[in-house]
Predict the 3D structure of the following.
Amino acid sequence: MINIPKADMHVHLEGTITPGMVVKLAKRNKIRVPAGLIKDGKYSWKGDGTARGDLIAFVHAYDVATSVMKSAKDYTDITYDYLKRAADEGCIYAEIGISADHGVQVGLTYLQMVKAIEKGCVKAKKETGIEARLISTCVRHYGPAAAMKVAQITHDNPHPLVTAFGMAGDENAYTVADFKPAFDLSGLANRTAHAGEAAGPESVHAALDHLKIRRFGHMVRAIEDKKLLKKLKSINAVPEVCVSSNLVLHVYKNYAAHPLRKFFDAGLKVVLGSDDPSFFSTSIGREYQIAKDHFGFSDKELRQITRNAIEEAFIDEKTRKRLFKQLDKKPACKSPKSGVL
């Protein structure tokens, strides 16, 4: 494991639930583990080998896995579990996408969900020092009306750990313009949105034009449009790159085809994320290791990626300064493992 401070800048909370945690929560909540979900201790979801087919299969497995969650304590436990594992790999900061829509499915109000997540964050920080912030996230394929509900709830229930509003989900559903009202209603100036992953450069153009953002979830397919890349560099755009996710979901067929190195060398402010690590057999530690092993990043360059993350994090300046001090140190990873879940 690379022995430098790390930051996980793109991770969805429910996507961190390990198969072991699914079994634990199912037992606690007295329900059966969904049939076919887990095999030999790992998730066994698999699509038809196409990008679209595998995405649909993944989303289904994601929803099935989270169906074992039934209480606020479940949210606290999965939050703590993820942050503890990330901290053991040297992660000092994480920005976690949270979903009011999934909270409703568990039976919690938005504020109940956030407070439960906060307990997990506080416990992990007390034990490991890891800092975390939350991004209230609407799901694009649930539609604009659902996004407005998430934005309204976020606006009406401010919380110090919720520092940004974001959008995840199928980039081919509806149009970006349909979601501008939700972003505006949220009342949060910090924004990020998925673009340039399942959809092409046009989705990045649309997010840039309508949402006025500088941070983009994934953004990798912007590499297909040279004029767009030039524009993104001019605004100091931040791609939240998740290599393993992109390969598993067939956005790229292999490491050689992936634009991570090209983005960094072009001067884009690259940060790394684990996305849905338990489903993609990865972790933030593994994503940093991949950058070194498959893209030739030096330790100095990886430290720069963490510096980029701290500079662009949705945090207060006091916390930012504290994280910079941690970055200038060299913390030891508690585990020498590769980070594969």
User: Anything to note?
Assistant: Strands lie at 6-12, 38-39, 42-43, 91-98, 131-139, 162-168, 191-195, 215-218, 238-241, 271-272.
